[in-house]
């Protein structure tokens, strides 16, 4: 072994090569630090995105929209019975007065079909609410009253701009409205007026052309595959089938190609073009003083269409008329063009009013998005938490006292300890299965030839069942927290009490427990906060039922906030999405409050021995 | 005391002192010859060093010159600042955010607290061994190769193995571990662990070795081995050792500094300190009246 | 009526407390020192006995009589209408009860009325017997306790022994819970395997999952209960989640433990804790409303077809959920690496990054590994995110952009679906049992690793 010259090695520490190496080593440090910062930034960004999603959606449902109507309250005999009854559950649905007052509020005669569309803009519940008004004061029957009718969920979404509202476009020209019997209405405008419309329509056509091209390619692919299959097939029957199929694919391909060519032409040709406005196109309106025309064809200086609300023929100067466009095609929004015109006219007349959405907090679940609220779920959550706490807290504290103060160090105690630690990590859904089997359904066991059922004593969907399951889940948390805070009480306190002749139980109950209580409470509150946000096990014991009334006691069916959130989220109505965010906000407020309480308790009573 | 005063009478008085010394320091090293002392090069030149932890001042105005190729020991009662001062020498105190250092500490004429000095580079030149043996939870080989690897001292594997072998030999551990270099360093005995830590420091090829009470966690036999080792090391390195044991300071070091309440009260040839201390507090300390 | 009886027992116990305490006081005749136990302990002893005996007999009678009468009524229905299927017989039973208690019944006929009358009479007997039994037992206990009162009666020791027994019972609830889980899962699991003719391999290695198709005469089609697609889906989402959570959580923990200033820590740690406190249903909403559509749009923008219920969206959000879990556990273990090791490394001239990478992380590795195992077990057992954002069809695919389903989703779908509980429960509980075993194994290993690690440095 050659001896190592450490002096030479030492000299390396101050060499230039080492200095260069050092820069590299520091660069590695910068990188590691950057990864850390990126990681925290990622977490912060996720939290921010989550928070902003919920806050913006919640803010969009803090208000709800009403339509001011003046219905004349008329009630049938059956309605009258309900109106005069003392039972508050008997409600009269005064549907007719509402729809009649709606029809009175729009000009002109309305067909049956349009009538349904018109009634559709207000909530189905409006009749009931009018009934409530009349029930509170029976003298209103036969009178004309001022009544704010709740709007349908889609109408409310429309008013908030969820589908786009008509946007004014260039109308800096005179418009000439020509009305002829039996002919479509024609509006002639100056050449500059419609350029913006054309730009939008061309972009749309160009997009549609791309889609047609994609469709053509798909069909072409099918054609190729089928040709290959024909080549490989031997069975004549199968070949015939494949050839028929090939034919269909080819026709579909050619149709798509033709469509593409036409769309492409419309998208590129700059002069003398007629756009047919189909179902998949944006809607173009001409609005003149409350009268509305919906465009059917658009030419360079001419719009042809039909009235949705009539406009008198004549020439209108610049500024006295408006061209408006909704980019989303009628087929892809729940509010038809006809309804748009009604709603816009109501809005222009100032008949649409916003009110604070107290319904969200006061109402219970409902099938109609505009009526649904979270009160029932709040009550359900309350009962569930009451059950959970009253089961888990005493049991948890008792178990913690036993394990810390009395348990001998033996196998059983070890087993219990390992068990508690493992239970804390068992997936919540397994607790749901346990609750379903033991508390709700019962386990059938055959003993000595007779079948007996163990358990199954709690009603499905009840806060009692849910609370019992959550109590089992929360128990390990409370026991662990309880043991930690009991352990933190110094032995000197125990020695002092024991030295005065107190029994071990007296020592534990009179001296140790009071000192450990703040810690136990803190742990329990945190455990309860987890339980409040728990969903999966409650789904399994049926707390996701559709329940329209808050449970009066822990044995009645109910749901809780998290399961309501889950139910609403799986609903297809879009307003439910926003209301889900509101329900989440309420849940988070409760959780924040509970955690703040826990922090406060800890700060207030924290004691270092 | 910037320059040494030569204790000419020290050698003559030694035997006499030894007999009468209350603390029973029987094995003082032979005092160095005058020419040897004169030849000594200064490794660390410290002037008016202050150390603050937040508001509290831990070190007050320490001025000391530490020789190359010699063992210097810092003694003093607990909390007197000797460890703190030691940690200033290779800027280990930088890892404590509230720590602030004033004055100048020069290593071979360069201020170690200069803005341009890199603490990482400095610590490669000034190695450190700690109170409690702290081998990394890795193999013996990995423990010793850690320094050479991060500093890129070896060009190839053979060279690395050479460094490791030589380091372990210098740390007097080679014969005990050469057959089990792959076994974990934490599996060694306390004394072996500490020698492993010394080998680890040596492998980094430092010029100075700082040792912070390296034997306080060890039994007497292991302590004796380490002390023997320290004596060997001074041939190649400047060694600074903080110790609680006056016997140890007397046995291994050529120069001794006595710290008290953050100040350095006395610094001199070890033989002088233990035979004719210049300060009353030093005398009290070495005779065991406090500390 | 029955709640009233319970209340009565409780009241009786309070009366017993007061009377026995008074009796003991009277015996002592003003010299309390003559009593072995303070009067209140005599009262407590009586109270505990009354409560235990009363409620014990009450519960035992209730369970026994409910079971007995239930069997009698089912037997009567079976003899009266032997042609009806078990499900129809159950319907008759529940209708009959509703006829008496007032509720909406499906049909109203003579059989139902007869059974209803039978139920009413049995129920009356049950209530009477249970109430009487409970109260009588409580009374006897009271009498016994009263008779035992004497100057030298060791009431305190006895009462305390009873209380300790109660504490012990509370502590064993944890074991009972585990037993309950195993008992309730294993029963249905056995039924499930019996229904597929004990072809365990068909479940573990089959590739078609559609357990409710092909059910006939209580037997399941063994070719349609292959859980591999669910395992693959679960695994894929778990892997995606861990790919997000482990690097982010670990780097965040490293940064916070070894690099961040105290000020950064003071806001970054609570931030991670907030992420940990968000309920999973909220993450599910986030995945379904924000992340999945965003991914789909991004995919169509770059020409990838990403399903709106892709494994990717669910996995990423699940990863976000697990970040705080990994980071807080890793932070704990990284912080518990002794400072002396860091000092040793710095003393050799290592940079902070080198110290972290080559000393701290290897030293903390067991703890970090166990954090990852616990995180994995969480991801496997997580339900709401996948129920709300992952697919429901059991596709066998390895493409993370497709919709996949997981074990937990299938459990929820089976239990909350429209299928008869008898049929759906068996596969659902079998999946639950599988899930329980896998997560339990992961937890046990992780906890053992952590314990070893703690022992190493404590």
Overall description:
- The complex is a heterotrimer of chains A (609), B (291) and C (458).
- Chain A is an alpha+beta fold and 609 residues long.
- Helix content of chain A is 58%, strand content 11%.
- In chain A, the strands form 3 sheets. In chain A, strands 3, 4, 5, 6, 7, 8, 9, 10 and 11 form a 9-stranded antiparallel sheet that branches. In chain A, strands 2-1-12 form a 3-stranded antiparallel sheet.
- Chain A is extended, with a radius of gyration of 36 Å.
- The two termini of chain A are 60 Å apart.
- Chain B contains 12 helices and 10 strands.
- The longest helix of chain B is centred in the middle third of the chain and has 14 residues, at 157-170.
- Chain B is globular.
- Chain B starts with 9 loop residues before the first helix and ends in a 5-residue tail after the last helix.
- The chains are: A alpha+beta (609), B alpha/beta (291), C mainly alpha (458).
- Chains in contact: A-B, A-C, B-C.
- The interface between A and B is medium-sized, with 18 and 19 residues.
**Which blocks of ≥5 consecutive residues of chain A have pLDDT under 50?**
none
Rg calc of chain B:
19 Å
**Alpha carbon gap, first and last residue of chain B:** 24 Å
Structural class of chain A: alpha+beta
- How many β strands of chain B by DSSP? 10
Question: Taking Cα atoms only, what radius of gyration of chain A do you get, to the nearest Å?
Answer: 36 Å
The profile of the biggest β sheet of chain A is: 9 strands, antiparallel
Secondary structure tally: strands of chain A: 14
Largest interface: A-C, 92 and 91 residues
Order of helices and strands of chain B: HHEEEHEEHEHHHHEHEHEEHH
| SS element count, helices of chain B | 12
Query: Percent of residues of chain A in helical segments?
Result: 55-70%
List the helices and strands and how they pair.
The complex is a heterotrimer of chains A (609), B (291) and C (458).
Chain A: H1 6-12, H2 16-59, E1 63-69, H3 77-84, H4 95-105, H5 112-119, H6 126-136, E2 147-150, H7 153-159, E3 167-169, E4 175-178, E5 185-189, H8 195-232, H9 236-268, E6 275-276, E7 283-288, E8 291-298, E9 302-309, E10 314-316, E11 322-326, H10 337-348, E12 352-356, H11 359-362, H12 375-406, H13 411-423, H14 428-441, E13 443-447, E14 450-454, H15 463-488, H16 491-499, H17 504-533, H18 536-540, H19 561-569, H20 574-605
Helix pairs in contact in A: 2-20, 3-6, 4-6, 8-9, 12-15, 12-17, 12-19, 14-15, 15-17, 16-17, 17-20, 19-20
Chain B: H1 10-20, H2 34-39, E1 42-53, E2 56-67, E3 71-75, H3 82-89, E4 99-107, E5 110-111, H4 119-125, E6 126-129, H5 140-151, H6 157-170, H7 174-177, H8 190-203, E7 208-212, H9 220-233, E8 238-242, H10 246-252, E9 255-260, E10 263-269, H11 270-275, H12 280-286
Parallel strand pairs in B: 3-8, 3-9, 6-7, 7-8
Antiparallel strand pairs in B: 1-2, 1-4, 4-5, 9-10
Helix pairs in contact in B: 5-6, 5-8, 6-8, 8-9
Chain C: H1 2-28, H2 39-80, H3 86-101, H4 110-148, H5 155-195, H6 200-205, H7 228-259, H8 262-277, H9 280-302, H10 311-336, H11 339-347, H12 352-381, H13 384-389, H14 407-416, H15 421-457
Helix pairs in contact in C: 1-2, 1-4, 2-3, 2-4, 2-5, 3-4, 5-15, 7-10, 7-12, 8-10, 9-10, 10-12, 11-12, 12-15, 14-15
